[in-house]
Amino acid sequence: MTPLLSLIGLGVVLLTGAGILMFTSRIRNGKASTIRLIPEVSRLRRALGLSVEAGTRVHIGLGNSPLTNASSTTSRSGVNTLLGLGLASSTSDHPPLATGGDGSVSLLSKDVLRSVSTETNTRDLYDPDHGVLTGVTPFSYAMGTKDLMRDPGLTTNLLVGTFGAEAGYLSTGNDSPDKFTLAVSDSLVGQSVFFAAGSNVLIGEELFALPAYLAAKPSFLASLKVQDILRLLLCLGLVTAAVLKVLGII
Amino acid sequence: MKLVNIIVAIISGAIVLLGYFIPNEGLQSLRTPLLNWALILSGIAGLVAIINLVFMVHWKKLKEPRTPKMFSLVVLLAFLGTLVVGIISGPSSVSFKSIVTDVAVPIETSLMAMLAISLSYASIKILQRHRNFMGFIFFFAVIFFLVLNTGILAFSTDIPLLRYLLSGLHQLPVAGARGILLGIALGSLVTGIRVLLGTDRPYNG
Question: Is B78's Cβ below 8 Å from some Cβ in A?
Answer without folding.
Answer: no
